[in-house]
Structure formats: C-alpha cells, structure tokens
Amino acid sequence: MRGEIALGFWGTAMKKYFKTYRRKPNMIFFLVLGGIFAVLGVLAFFWTDILPLAIGCAAFGVLLAVLPQFVIFEKYGLDGNILRYKAAGIPKKIAAEQIGAAIICIYDEYRRGKGFVRAAFATENGEAAIPALVLLRGADESELDVCETRTATGITFRKQKICDMVLEFDFLEELYASSFAGKIYISEYIAALYKPAFDDIFKGDERVVVYDRLPKNRKIPKK
Prior knowledge:
This protein is of the alpha+beta class. The protein has helices spanning 23-47, 51-72, 150-156, 169-177, 188-193, 195-202, and strands at 4-7, 13-18, 75-79, 82-87, 90-95, 101-106, 108-111, 115-118, 120-123, 126-129, 131-136, 161-166, 183-187, 208-211. The strands form 4 sheets. Strands 1-2-3-4-5 form a 5-stranded antiparallel beta sheet, with helices on one face. Strands 12-11-6-13-14 form a 5-stranded mixed beta sheet. Strands 7-8 form a two-stranded antiparallel sheet. Helix 1 (23-47) runs antiparallel to helix 2. 25% of the residues are buried.
C-alpha cells in the first residue's frame, strides 16, 4: 500500500499511490479468465470451420486479460497542488483547492459470489477495516449517515464525486498540507480505529468532522 516516487506531468517529483487494495488476486483472476477464452479461441480455430468465432473468442480473451489491468493498477498522487489520477484508465487532474470535501470511510470492494464486502486485515484482536478516501467537490452533511462505505458514499454523492481510493496516510498528509481547504469527514468507526494517525495529522483542526450513522434530524440534542 506504500507509494512510490515518480515524475509528474511537468517533470516534478511526485509520490504515486495505488487506488485499489486487492490488486494481485484481481490481476490473476482476469489473466486466468482471459487465458481460458484465448485458448478456447485457438482450439476453435483448429476444431471448427467458423473462423470469425475462433478469432473473436481469442481476441476477447486477450482483451479480458489485458484491459482490466489498467484499472486494477491505477495510481494517483499530488503534483504540487494538482491531484493527478485516472478514471477508467483516462488520466485526469484537478486543483486541490477545487476539492470541497474528503470523506474517510470503510473501504469495500466487489468480491465475485459475495457482492460488495468490506476489506479488512488481520490483527491480534480480530480484523480491522481498511479505510477509504472519497474526494468530492462538495458534500451535504445531512447525507453523511449513509456514507458508511466507499461504495455507499460514491452512490450518495455521485454528482459531486471526483475519485475514490484506498486511504494512504502519507497521501492524506500531503493533501492536508496542500492548497486543499475543504472539510474532512471521518466515519465514527474509522476515526476510533485510526485515532492516533488522524490526531497526528490534523492536530484538532476544526475542519475535521467525525460523523456517525444517526441522521442529524434524529439526534438527541445535547443538554
């Protein structure tokens, strides 16, 4: 999950990070599946007289093995005050000051046969959720109660969404030190789980808001 130093678009040193968490298993899945179709296409070339079918099957296998890799291994990073990232393999950029909100929640991902599930790693006390970072042009705080996971956050703020990724604390520190002036929203669960790291980065900044799953209009006023 660590980043690497690379040259940015303008030749400046830029630390780049991977957007997705489970890269190797997904890479292997598409390579194997694509390979199966490619082999079937080759076999069909010798066993059938339908040449277009054989060529199409083999070509589909090659594309299935190669194209998903560009998405699986997408990277992002800050080039000065410019966020550079990719969406479906297409390079994009946005100035840090144009990012109106950053939501830190639980990283979930699609697992074949299971649907969207939370990503976690093993600890001495069980499992701990992997945090996700969702960058938005703006966020309605009244909608935060449904933003428990990366997918739910992206759906809730689909019109405001810039990009999302597995959270790298080094990048979060870079973003916080940049020209980014928006609010940072952290789910209550993730805030408690990684409290020392957040305290070290934000140091009690009032722009940081911890939210929970209880809608604002249903909360009991404090006395």
